[in-house]
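anyone seen this seq b4? input:
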Amino acid sequence: MNGASNIASRNIDLAVKARRGFGERIIRFVLAGCALVSVLVTVAIAATLIYESVGFFRDVSVLRFLTESQWTPQFVDKQFGIWPLLSGTLLVTLIAALVAMPIGLFSAIYIAEYAGDRIRRVLKPGLEVLAGVPTVVYGWFALTFVTPVLQSIFPSLGVYNALSAGLVVGIMIIPMVASISEDAIRAVPRALAEGGYALGGTKIEVVSTIVVPGALSGIVASFILALSRAIGETMIVTLAAGATPNLTINPAESIQTMTAFIVQVSLGDTPHGTIVYKSIFAVGLTLFLITLGMNLLANVIIRRYKESY
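predicted toks r here
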């Protein structure tokens, strides 16, 4: 009787293990499929950009694309030098970096090291709300509020300018810098900070010489990821920066970024298959390579300076 019961129990256990093993395999395949989708989408985007860009570079040499200083694809005398669009993109990104990096980092330090629980519960959701504002709203904010304020300070400033767009793009990426940096700071073991206090260090000394250096890889990664986001921003620069491909470093002038040009040509007025239509893929490929390079750089920095505790 006991032998029969033991056999029945073993059979039940085997059946349960078999069902669990089948369920685990299904879950593993589903998770692997989800991961594979992201890879396939990235490959498909890259393949589309490369395929369409080949048609563009049959008519416009890569050397001409990378060395000429005028971008006038919609003029009779068509010029396809990427530098005006690239300089406009980098100018907006630089202004955004000057806004977002210090404010985001100092916000992260305050939330992680100085703010009490009650203040932290207010500030964290506030940053998340700021991150959830649609970019088109930021664009109208730049055009209808920030630009008039700047014009009251600089009367010669035009309606469309890189300064207004860069400032608002910087505001937009502050939550990304603050959130990732705060996570990195809070990941530093408290024992290190307590050791600093035990040696007689003040709060600012411990934070600046122990905590922040310990979180350096995460902080730098947040900077690079935020800059990648700024480079790819579309609606703010389309609404506030203008549509003038201008090779300049003057933030008071109207400029055009790579993303704004893509929007301009993609509105439907440009015939399919023309050189102007194909140019958006060459610009998109350039933008893709820049952002890909920055993300790879972020991964290298994380691996290089990551602290193991």
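The mean pLDDT is 84. The chain has two domains: 2-59, 83-305. kinda curious what u guys think
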